[in-house]
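Provenance and format

Records in this collection were gathered into a single text stream. Each protein contributes a sequence line and a token line. The two records reproduced below are adjacent in the stream.
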Amino acid sequence: MDVPDSPSPDTGIVWSTTWWAGRRPRCHSQFTSHEEYVQFPDGQWISVEKILDIIRSGFSDDASDHDPPTFDDDGVPLPKLRFDDLGAAKGDPLLATAAKLAEVLPERWKIAVFNLSGAADEVRSFAIVVDQGKPSPVPIYLFVDAAAEGRTLRAATRRDDGGGAWCNALLRIYEDGTVAAHYDYSSPPFGAYLGERELELLRRDQELYPRDRASLPSWHPSKA
């Protein structure tokens, strides 16, 4: 599969052919008979459907026509980054994670979506930033090392009802500094690609952040 320069019929977003370090992703369809995976330049495999899901959920509305949200679903005010003092975010696990992306954001951007995926002590991440200077929104893919911040965020947001720590986190960062987070505790981490290394990480994750057996998803290796 190559990366088209025309808008995707599913998302209406033009895929960028300019990839980190000037490299395009590799594609593979042999992991399963049903899904196609892309290997990004940093080595992680992500299913194509997962990438489309992130784009749909992160950019489902036109950010240029909507003000940033003010409250989360529970009515709690959303935190804000101070772009002129990113160091001030160190005391807050969520803002500290968002600040890692803010350090490398391009000049022209309206909204950025930071995807983190983790198990045990490993957190992988990439970001999609819409370039608002193009006639059609073009996603720019950035690979940001936020492993340490991601581990801290997972620990800080672990569920106290036996649900463990999140497998995936989606952070939406707006140009005014607003950060909105969505934590997914039930979908497979690592772009839905679960090789032997990933399965072992999940087994270790169950030791670090134990889940009640009833809350273990069917794909989790500790479910058996």
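Adjacent record:
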Amino acid sequence: MQGTLFTTPDEIYALADVDGWNIFWIRPQTVEERIRTLAIIKDVDVKLDLPNRLVIRVVERQPVAAWQAGDQLFLVDAEGVLFEVRGDPSNAVLVRDVRNEPLRPGDRVDPEAIVTALELNQIMPERREFEWRPGAGLSFVTEEGWRVQIGDHQNLMLKVLIYRQFQVQVAPARNVTLLDLSVPERPYYRVASGEE
């Protein structure tokens, strides 16, 4: 067994389901299909090594962030493939999917959202939690309780610069509910109803 980091050799062996089989009856492609049912497995290669050995090499997906949909928490790789949480995800960048649609390991989510969240976290290390909406992209809620709509990862440095200036120069004097930076050349903000 080679390539296991998040999975265990016992787990992969159980999925292979070859215990007690004669090596001449084992079909490597069938074993590979069984092992691929585990969403964390990106690739697998099974070889017969005569006279009586089976070599299994796996490539696991590398978690880059956590993805939350309702009360379900997954790890996600850079390609947007979800898989079961293994280990402690508390230090991972978290993207909350506000659609609240049920998801399963192996489902794919928007890789653009993952890229945007990771890049934002690099620029703003204090930001580790984001929300994602289809068509709207990423946003986050400030400590003051107003939403900052980022959108996609285009012009992130400019968006962060505008946000920081707005946070200092405009937000303290207004009851802001939203700052939309989806189009940084034309940012706009909204205040709570009743304020001029």
